[in-house]
């Protein structure tokens, strides 16, 4: 049985076998030409990540990857990811993998343009 789906809540999510082939068009749709792929160390070592990087290279998106992501990402991981983003002159993030890679990828994408510290955006106690 093959399951594929598209849904939007609040952003577009594409799920299913082979959908990684749509990555170049998703980047084009988002206006991303020089993405930074953010993932964890373990996933970075797997064949699926290399195939994704090969796909990115073939599409002219480069092959930049940041994988210094701890199981519970730290502020140090975030700062290193932001530095990699800026040094590579990237214009978008591909958050790849499980929770930690996705969490840090979203934070790098958000924080790379911020001038305030990340802790200014936490919501504990001020709902």
Overview in brief:
This protein is 39% helix and 14% strand. By secondary structure, it is an alpha/beta fold. It has a domain at 43-94 and 106-114.
Question: Could you characterize the architecture of this molecule?
Answer:
With 127 residues, the chain is α/β, with parallel strands linked by helices. The protein has a domain at 43-94 and 106-114. The chain is 39% helix and 14% strand. It contains five helices and five strands. It has helices at 23-30, 41-44, 47-58, 75-87, 99-111; strands at 5-8, 12-15, 35-38, 65-66, 92-95. The strands form two sheets. Strands 4-3-5 form a three-stranded parallel β-sheet, with helices on one face. Helix 4 (75-87) packs across helix 5.
Write the layout of secondary structure elements.
Blueprint: E1 5-8, E2 12-15, H1 23-30, E3 35-38, H2 41-44, H3 47-58, E4 65-66, H4 75-87, E5 92-95, H5 99-111
Instruction: Identify the quaternary structure here.
Output: single chain
Gyration radius (Cα, Å) is 15 Å
- What is the succession of H and E elements? EEHEHHEHEH
SS element count, helices: 5
Relative strand content: 5-15%
Low-confidence stretches: none
User: Can you give the mean pLDDT?
Assistant: 91
Report how far apart the termini are.
43 Å
Give helix % range.
25-40%
Give me the secondary-structure category. Answer: alpha/beta
The biggest beta sheet is recorded as: 3 strands, parallel
Shape: globular
Total DSSP E strands? 5
Strand order of the largest sheet: 4-3-5
